Amino acid sequence: xxxxxxxxxxxxxxxxxxxxxxxxxxxxxxxxxxxxxxxxxxxxxxxxxxxxxxxxxxxxxxxxxxxxxxxxxxxxxxxxxxxxxxxxxxxxxxxxxxxxxxxxxxxxxxxxxxxxxxxxxxxxxxxxxxxxxxxxxxxxxxxxxxxxxxxxxxxxxxxxxxxxxxxxxxxxxxxxxxxxxxxxxxxxxxxxxxxxxxxxxxxxxxxxxxxxxxxxxxxxxxxxxxxxxxxxxxxxxxxxxxxxxxxxxxxxxxxxxxxxxx
Length: 262
Ligand SMILES: [Zn+2]
Description:
The protein is of the alpha+beta class and 262 residues long. It contains six helices and 15 strands.
């Protein structure tokens, strides 16, 4: 499993039967401060620009908005299996699946999509590409162990964690993510202090990608089956929007995964 940076996206080669990609800020039509590939309707950008940007980012994988499913994300740990009946929900902003930060599907007709600022995108499939999954993990979702929740639901469908393949995409890195006591305490309580490094008496650097790797490994995913892009959205503002570095009035990226039609 490898990844590569193209103009408008970071592509994860998780499996030959799976397409998985994460958008950059390049190759879209939005004006500053949303330049150029903003994928969120909720930040003040023109809806017509977002429509076109969403069309373009799906077209990079030969898919279109009719297949896309995007939920209303709430930084929780709810994960849901979706079927063909959900196709199109949230694709243009309307009728998203409610309050869900993780999606799973075994249908090749569905493209799973989630929006990201600095949170961690986690791409999932298995060695036989029987399903695909996509998770959104900020500090709250990480402390609520959304990745463990996903593995539990996948196991319930008869797929062993030992067969899982995971990709951890671009997010705010430990170089740029300073947290305070409440976040520190929530992470320590959930998974221990391994992903935290002290900055001063009251602040820590949090490695959210590493934290999610730890959760996946403890849930039974093999370390060698987890790929991290290692890209920081805060450091790479040439490639990405960063909520933490640029404030609320900036764009949002998208993560996408689907089974290729057979
Ligand atoms: Zn950084």
